[in-house]
Write a structure and sequence with these properties.
94 residues; mainly alpha
């Protein structure tokens, strides 16, 4: 789920940049670069969530459709033991 984590961070950060830009200086370059970046991250999150088996993360699919924070909501639905199993262990447990 590394791709989901990356897409969730990109979605949230790009939304923050877009909102700060709109409410402060409103530079067109930031909007023209941030908009497609945010939209692409949003679509990636939806695709990853729909390809995840429902048993692994129940209720994750509808949460992926929430714009702006859907990726973070999906990450919260993922079981912690699945992500902990992928982390490298420094010391072997006996």
């Amino acid at each position: 789920m590394r791709a989901l984590r990356i897409a969730a961070v990109v979605e949230a950060v790009s939304l923050a940049f877009l909102l700060v830009n709109v409410f402060t200086v409103h530079v067109g370059v930031i909007t023209s670069l941030g908009g497609p970046t945010h939209g692409t991250a949003y679509l990636v999150i939806i695709v990853i969530a729909w390809r995840t088996p429902p048993a692994l993360a129940p209720g994750a699919r509808p949460r992926a459709l929430v714009p702006g924070v859907g990726g973070l909501l999906v990450l919260r639905r993922m079981p912690q033991e699945a992500s902990a199993a992928r982390r490298p262990r420094l010391v072997e447990e006996e």
